[in-house]
Design a protein that fits this description.
The protein is α/β, with parallel strands linked by helices. It binds N-{4-[(3-aminopropyl)amino]butyl}acetamide and zinc ion (ZN). N-{4-[(3-aminopropyl)amino]butyl}acetamide (Q9C) binds next to loops. Keywords: Hydrolase, Metal-binding, Zinc.
């Protein structure tokens, strides 16, 4: 399986995030990707490639998923931040004020002039710092997703978009959960646009893929399935319940499988069987797997208890679905183990 890796990922390197009411060092660090890359090399798992995607095609693929007013804001956000105060060049920008989700309480259609207000309008948490290289890194990550989609469309059994920042929490016009551009959604939409009639997204990150769900919620041509920590107690808290089944034309095409904190592999695996069955019943002709490794027992911010060897089984079960598959790299914060766990899954998939 080919891996498309983001050469600019380390330009996005946050200093601190707001976590449980305090500032702590960022969990989402460049070393995460470096460990996966090193492990792929060590185990000679397929070739490593840079994404070769033209600017026009890339911008078009991003625009299929994200609103123009959002991407324009992201592209210029750092310059605006520094223009406010030259000393900001030494600090990351972090949102601190948001409109309520209750639409009647605040206007979200009017774009405020104030930068902090716009930073809040386009985000949903204070855990996702934005810095000088965020846009370049995120955009180049989207190029990996597009390159992987093209590879699979061209007949490859699977491809891996190895990138950070991750993507599955980013929605049409919002960032959060360390995510800015939704790489999995960009891959899914690209597969649709390349002619795949029905694309499924099967999100196995510990956290609910709220961005992806929001992007495709009213669509019948892209099914979204997510296995994750129950939002009653787990981030992102406000989406990911089993009762969310899609709306309008998309009714019945979103499946959430929330599991309690503490869930181990046998129950998680049963959920994966259910998820794969749903993808098959849907009749998908291509699959995108936002691959979060934060289901691992050693993850510092998550609550499932999967072991490193369990990821072999995950890879094997996903391979049994026999669908052209794009994997995108999402969460996973047990940095020392993230490479081994990710490559266990991918290697087993290829066996
Ligand atoms: N009190 C991904 O795995 N912080 N994002 C959690 C809990 C945000 C995770 C705070 C976790 C985001 C891609
Ligand atoms: Zn996660």
């Amino acid at each position: 399986m080919k891996t498309f890796h983001n050469p600019h990922h380390a330009l996005h390197q946050g200093r601190e995030e707001m976590f449980r009411g305090r500032m702590v060092p960022c969990h989402e660090v460049p070393a995460r990707l470096d460990y996966v890359l090193a492990e792929l090399q060590r185990r000679s798992q397929g070739g490593l490639f840079l994404p070769e995607v033209g600017d026009t095609d890339l911008d078009a693929a991003i625009a299929r998923v994200h609103d123009a007013r959002y991407t324009q804001f992201l592209a210029g956000a750092w310059d605006e931040w520094v223009a406010m105060d030259p000393a900001n060049a030494q600090r990351d920008a972090l949102p601190s004020v948001w409109p309520l989700g209750n639409q009647d309480a605040f206007r979200t259609d009017v774009l405020p002039q104030n930068f902090a207000a716009r930073l809040g309008l386009f985000s949903f948490d204070s855990g996702s710092p934005l810095m000088a290289g965020t846009w370049t890194a995120a955009r180049s990550g989207a190029a990996c997703a597009l390159a992987a989609a093209r590879e699979v469309h061209g007949g490859a059994r699977a491809a891996f978009a190895l990138t950070r920042p991750p993507g599955h929490h980013a929605g049409p016009d919002f960032f959060g959960g360390y995510c800015f551009l939704n790489n999995g959604a960009i891959a899914a939409q690209a597969l649709r646009d390349l002619g795949h009639a029905k694309v499924a997204v099967l999100d196995i990150d510990y956290h609910h893929g709220n961005g992806t769900q929001t992007i495709f919620y009213e669509r019948a041509d892209v099914m979204t399935v997510s296995i994750h920590g129950d939002p009653a107690t787990e981030y992102p808290f406000f989406l990911g319940h089993a009762s969310e089944r899609g709306a309008g034309a998309g009714e019945g095409f979103n499946l959430n499988i929330p599991l309690p904190r503490g869930t181990g592999f046998s129950a998680w695996c049963a959920a994966l069987d259910t998820a794969i069955e749903a993808v098959e019943d849907f009749g998908a002709d291509a699959l995108v797997v936002p691959m979060g490794m934060d289901t691992f027992k050693g993850d510092p911010i998550s609550g499932f208890t999967l072991e490193s060897s369990d990821y072999d089984t995950v890879g094997r079960l996903l391979a049994a679905a026999s669908l052209p598959t794009v994997f995108t790299f999402e969460g996973g914060y047990a940095v020392d183990e993230v490479g081994v766990n990710a490559v266990n899954l991918l290697e087993a998939y290829c066996r």
